Amino acid sequence: ADPATRAYEIQELSVDNGHVILTGRVDSYRERTLVAQVVKSVDGVRGIDNRVEVSPKLVRSDDELKAEIETTLEWDLFVDDGLIEVEVEDGVVSLTGTVGSAAEKWRATTTAWVTGVKEVDASGLNVERWARDEDLRRRKYAARSDEEIRAAVEDALARDPRVLAFPLSVYVDGGNVTLRGIVDNLRARHAAEQDARNTVGILRVSNRIKVRVTPGLNDEDIRSDVVQAFIRDSVVESYEIDVRVVGGKVTLSGQTDSYFEKFHADDVVSGVEGVVSVENRIVVDHDRPRTVYDPYVEPESFPDGYGEYYYEGPSSTDLRPDAEIAEEVKDELWWSPFVDSDHIDVSVDDGVVTLRGTVDSWAEARTAIENAYEGGARRVTNELTVSPSSS
Question: Taking burial as the number of CB atoms within 10 A of a residue's CB, which of 141, 231, 236, 238 is the most buried?
Fold first, then answer.
């Protein structure tokens, strides 16, 4: 049922007591990873033995692989490539050097799996806190030309198995990116936007990509498919969610236990054929423990988030003292692997956290806002200025 993996050559699938064995062939490591993601989302799966073989149709030289990996790391918003060395021998990649966090090491490792790579060895990539020093990252966030940004976004789209099948156009003006084109599923539209956001130098992304209406599918068919997708899913409690479909536009209502479940429901719907948009009216039960989605803690996942949402913090009766919230937010920002807390000022008034200062990207600003909610904010006022060359 997944719009990206349905065309893959998955030759055999067997299940023994909830443990799934997969065999077949795909063109890239990211496609292989995507297959595993789809399988582990199914309710009842207890384990996965992913024997799917990565067999690229195109044989590439070591020099070509090395050049692409270095370029990909350079433009990846979540990796500072300045202290990373790349070597390739017979398709086997060795990463050595230093990164500032375990999350950054994981991201660099997965990014190095470009098409044609047989294996990635990151054992020589050390994690050191000092590597996050802003002076070491000046080159990473230096201003880029519009043409350089456009080429980098196009490359990112070409590497993403969720969108590479669609002819999308990228326009850049002063660091502001506009995406145009037609896709056949909403998840591809979301993925393309996030690929652009995860590129160095981006200020804003305007997503003008349209989802093609699937002929022959009526609203009742789409609603039935959405309900079945929720029943299959291992995260969403389907009985808690009501689904309405009008003209391919899905409206979700009901109640979930966490923001992760709410946002995940949105993602599940976006992978259903015929859905052109989602309006998520699901309410989060604040009597349950609150969780904020963190795209960096899930192994083998793409840091693509679940779109743009505003969290609802605790009610005024549940708030901790402002000084306590401020300290907790500062602590969250300091530990966050993708936020430079030295450039962010935090103030709190009646549970409302105001963030001021300068960050290098919109991704860093969004992460800082999530950190503030994780610290106990009732609401967050974002007064951060985005300046790619701020470091």
Answer: 236
